[in-house]
Fold this sequence. Notes:
The protein has three helices and no strands.
Amino acid sequence: xxxxxxxxxxxxxxxxxxxxxxxxxxxxxxxxxxxxxxxxxxxxxxxxxxxxxxxxxxxxxxxxxxxxxxxxxxxxxxxxxxxxx
Length: 85
């Protein structure tokens, strides 16, 4: 009768390490996707928002960083609202 030493051998250990890393990577990716999905749904206003509100946010962001001044902001906002009707 021949006995093989009762161990997994190097290939068994390698397979165990690789499969454990793959499993942990899948769990991490699932958690990351769930967090991103929750973040996006919480950030959107009820009703899904509109193109106008997205444009207003972009315009407000440009004002906040100093790309445009208050007069330019108000002018563009009026034009935006006139076009939304």
